[in-house]
Amino acid sequence: MNILVIGSGGREHALAWQCAKDDKVQSIYVAPGNAGTALEPKCQNVTLEDTADADEHSAVIEFCQNNAIDMVIVGPEAPLVTGIVDACRAAGIKAWGPTAYCAQLEGSKTFAKEFMAQNKIPTAAYQGFTDATAAKAYIDEQGAPIVIKADGLAAGKGVIVAETIEQAHEAIDD
User: Fold this and answer.
1) pTM for the whole thing?
2) 3-class SS of residue 137
3) Which CATH number fits domain 2-104: 3.40.630.30, 2.60.120.330, 3.40.50.150, 3.40.50.20?
4) Please, are residues 89 and 112 in contact by the beta-carbon 8 Å criterion?
Protein backbone atom coordinates (compact mmCIF):
# COMPACT_ATOMS: atom_id res chain seq x y z
CA MET A 1 0.00 0.00 0.00
CA ASN A 2 1.23 3.50 -0.87
CA ILE A 3 0.04 6.43 1.22
CA LEU A 4 0.15 10.20 0.79
CA VAL A 5 0.00 12.18 4.04
CA ILE A 6 -0.79 15.86 3.53
CA GLY A 7 0.67 18.25 6.09
CA SER A 8 3.84 19.36 7.82
CA GLY A 9 3.18 19.29 11.55
CA GLY A 10 3.55 16.93 14.45
CA ARG A 11 0.11 15.45 13.77
CA GLU A 12 1.16 14.45 10.26
CA HIS A 13 4.49 13.12 11.56
CA ALA A 14 2.58 10.91 14.03
CA LEU A 15 0.27 9.68 11.26
CA ALA A 16 3.19 8.84 8.96
CA TRP A 17 5.09 7.17 11.81
CA GLN A 18 2.11 4.94 12.65
CA CYS A 19 1.53 4.05 9.00
CA ALA A 20 5.22 3.15 8.60
CA LYS A 21 4.83 0.47 11.29
CA ASP A 22 2.33 -1.45 9.16
CA ASP A 23 3.88 -4.27 7.09
CA LYS A 24 1.27 -3.70 4.37
CA VAL A 25 2.54 -0.16 3.78
CA GLN A 26 5.31 0.08 1.20
CA SER A 27 5.77 3.82 0.74
CA ILE A 28 4.61 6.97 2.48
CA TYR A 29 4.87 10.33 0.79
CA VAL A 30 4.43 13.36 3.04
CA ALA A 31 3.53 16.68 1.41
CA PRO A 32 5.31 18.81 2.33
CA GLY A 33 6.45 16.93 5.43
CA ASN A 34 9.11 18.12 7.86
CA ALA A 35 12.56 17.21 9.16
CA GLY A 36 11.07 14.48 11.34
CA THR A 37 9.04 12.81 8.61
CA ALA A 38 12.14 12.78 6.40
CA LEU A 39 13.82 10.48 8.95
CA GLU A 40 10.98 7.96 9.21
CA PRO A 41 11.36 4.61 7.47
CA LYS A 42 9.33 4.27 4.28
CA CYS A 43 8.72 8.07 4.26
CA GLN A 44 9.70 10.59 1.64
CA ASN A 45 8.87 14.30 1.76
CA VAL A 46 7.47 15.68 -1.50
CA THR A 47 6.56 19.13 -2.73
CA LEU A 48 3.12 19.61 -4.25
CA GLU A 49 1.15 22.69 -5.19
CA ASP A 50 -0.67 24.45 -2.34
CA THR A 51 -2.85 21.61 -1.06
CA ALA A 52 -5.19 24.10 0.65
CA ASP A 53 -6.01 25.81 -2.66
CA ALA A 54 -9.11 24.25 -4.18
CA ASP A 55 -7.75 25.06 -7.64
CA GLU A 56 -4.67 22.95 -6.93
CA HIS A 57 -6.39 19.73 -5.88
CA SER A 58 -5.71 18.45 -9.39
CA ALA A 59 -1.96 18.41 -8.55
CA VAL A 60 -2.68 16.09 -5.61
CA ILE A 61 -4.87 13.84 -7.76
CA GLU A 62 -2.22 13.72 -10.48
CA PHE A 63 0.49 12.86 -7.92
CA CYS A 64 -1.68 10.06 -6.55
CA GLN A 65 -2.34 8.63 -9.99
CA ASN A 66 1.33 8.86 -11.03
CA ASN A 67 2.58 7.23 -7.82
CA ALA A 68 -0.04 4.50 -7.33
CA ILE A 69 -1.28 6.07 -4.09
CA ASP A 70 -3.87 3.87 -2.41
CA MET A 71 -4.93 6.30 0.31
CA VAL A 72 -4.57 9.98 1.16
CA ILE A 73 -4.50 11.03 4.82
CA VAL A 74 -5.15 14.73 5.41
CA GLY A 75 -4.05 16.43 8.62
CA PRO A 76 -4.41 20.22 8.30
CA GLU A 77 -7.76 21.95 8.37
CA ALA A 78 -7.23 24.20 5.33
CA PRO A 79 -7.12 21.47 2.66
CA LEU A 80 -10.03 19.71 4.36
CA VAL A 81 -12.14 22.88 4.25
CA THR A 82 -11.32 23.45 0.57
CA GLY A 83 -12.44 19.93 -0.33
CA ILE A 84 -9.32 17.81 -0.84
CA VAL A 85 -11.10 14.71 0.51
CA ASP A 86 -14.05 15.29 -1.83
CA ALA A 87 -11.67 15.69 -4.81
CA CYS A 88 -9.79 12.49 -3.95
CA ARG A 89 -12.97 10.47 -3.54
CA ALA A 90 -14.38 11.86 -6.81
CA ALA A 91 -11.20 10.61 -8.52
CA GLY A 92 -11.63 7.16 -6.96
CA ILE A 93 -8.83 7.61 -4.41
CA LYS A 94 -9.50 6.59 -0.81
CA ALA A 95 -9.13 9.56 1.53
CA TRP A 96 -9.11 9.79 5.32
CA GLY A 97 -10.65 12.97 6.65
CA PRO A 98 -13.96 14.81 6.67
CA THR A 99 -15.63 16.15 3.56
CA ALA A 100 -15.59 19.90 2.93
CA TYR A 101 -19.11 20.16 4.32
CA CYS A 102 -18.19 18.40 7.56
CA ALA A 103 -14.90 20.30 7.84
CA GLN A 104 -16.92 23.50 8.19
CA LEU A 105 -17.29 22.58 11.87
CA GLU A 106 -13.60 23.50 12.17
CA GLY A 107 -13.41 25.98 9.31
CA SER A 108 -16.33 28.27 10.16
CA LYS A 109 -17.13 29.40 13.67
CA THR A 110 -20.54 30.60 12.48
CA PHE A 111 -21.33 27.21 10.93
CA ALA A 112 -20.19 25.43 14.11
CA LYS A 113 -22.28 27.68 16.37
CA GLU A 114 -25.36 27.29 14.16
CA PHE A 115 -24.84 23.52 14.11
CA MET A 116 -24.63 23.43 17.91
CA ALA A 117 -27.74 25.59 18.28
CA GLN A 118 -29.76 23.49 15.80
CA ASN A 119 -28.73 20.28 17.56
CA LYS A 120 -29.21 21.62 21.09
CA ILE A 121 -25.53 21.22 21.95
CA PRO A 122 -24.63 23.55 24.84
CA THR A 123 -22.40 26.43 23.78
CA ALA A 124 -21.74 30.02 24.75
CA ALA A 125 -24.11 32.70 23.47
CA TYR A 126 -23.07 34.12 20.12
CA GLN A 127 -24.06 36.43 17.33
CA GLY A 128 -22.60 36.42 13.81
CA PHE A 129 -22.09 39.48 11.65
CA THR A 130 -21.02 40.30 8.12
CA ASP A 131 -21.35 44.05 8.67
CA ALA A 132 -18.85 45.90 10.90
CA THR A 133 -21.34 48.62 11.88
CA ALA A 134 -23.88 46.06 13.07
CA ALA A 135 -21.17 44.16 14.97
CA LYS A 136 -20.07 47.35 16.74
CA ALA A 137 -23.67 48.21 17.64
CA TYR A 138 -24.05 44.73 19.18
CA ILE A 139 -20.82 45.26 21.16
CA ASP A 140 -22.13 48.61 22.41
CA GLU A 141 -25.33 46.87 23.61
CA GLN A 142 -23.54 43.91 25.23
CA GLY A 143 -20.64 45.78 26.80
CA ALA A 144 -17.24 44.44 27.73
CA PRO A 145 -15.51 42.15 28.32
CA ILE A 146 -16.54 40.38 25.13
CA VAL A 147 -14.99 37.72 22.92
CA ILE A 148 -14.53 38.46 19.22
CA LYS A 149 -13.84 35.56 16.87
CA ALA A 150 -13.10 35.74 13.17
CA ASP A 151 -15.13 33.32 11.08
CA GLY A 152 -12.95 30.91 9.15
CA LEU A 153 -9.52 29.46 9.72
CA ALA A 154 -7.20 31.82 11.54
CA ALA A 155 -4.23 29.60 12.49
CA GLY A 156 -5.13 29.82 16.16
CA LYS A 157 -5.08 33.61 16.13
CA GLY A 158 -8.71 34.43 15.41
CA VAL A 159 -9.87 35.07 18.98
CA ILE A 160 -9.71 38.39 20.84
CA VAL A 161 -10.86 38.78 24.43
CA ALA A 162 -11.64 42.50 24.49
CA GLU A 163 -11.59 43.99 27.99
CA THR A 164 -13.04 47.28 26.75
CA ILE A 165 -15.52 48.34 24.09
CA GLU A 166 -12.70 50.22 22.36
CA GLN A 167 -10.62 47.02 22.12
CA ALA A 168 -13.63 45.19 20.72
CA HIS A 169 -14.17 47.88 18.07
CA GLU A 170 -10.47 47.70 17.15
CA ALA A 171 -10.77 43.93 16.75
CA ILE A 172 -13.66 44.43 14.34
CA ASP A 173 -11.66 47.00 12.36
CA ASP A 174 -8.67 44.68 12.11
Assistant:
1) 0.83
2) helix
3) 3.40.50.20
4) no
